[in-house]
Amino acid sequence: QVQLVESGGGLVQAGGSLRLSCAASGRTFSSYDMGWFRQVPGKEREFVAGISWSGGIIYYADSVKGRFTISRDSAKNTVYLQMNSLKPEDTAVYYCAASASARTRSYEYDYWGQGTQVTVSS
Hints:
Elements: E1 2-7, E2 10-13, E3 18-26, E4 33-39, E5 46-51, E6 58-60, E7 68-73, E8 78-83, E9 92-99, E10 111-112, E11 116-121
Parallel strand pairs: 2-11
Antiparallel strand pairs: 1-3, 3-8, 4-5, 4-9, 5-6, 7-8, 9-10, 9-11
């Protein structure tokens, strides 16, 4: 079992930055692929970024490529999402997720955090 807790969300103006954190506890964090997803009311959960257990494979949704950066610190059992040049359309609840083997589909992930709200004002 893995417990995930996100933090770092908030209200920011367009063009600003936020860094989300996801602290993991439970079973060995370093063996899990990690992902960030986001969801707005009435829409499906959307893949944002993912990082393999080793950190050697990283991938992004086209909508955030060049603006967002995912990273992980195994010593701190934490995965981060640095979000720069934020746009109003980035407004959503952001979730981190963990899986023994996953890529971009939400059903591939076994464990989820409770989410953190990000709101970007225009």
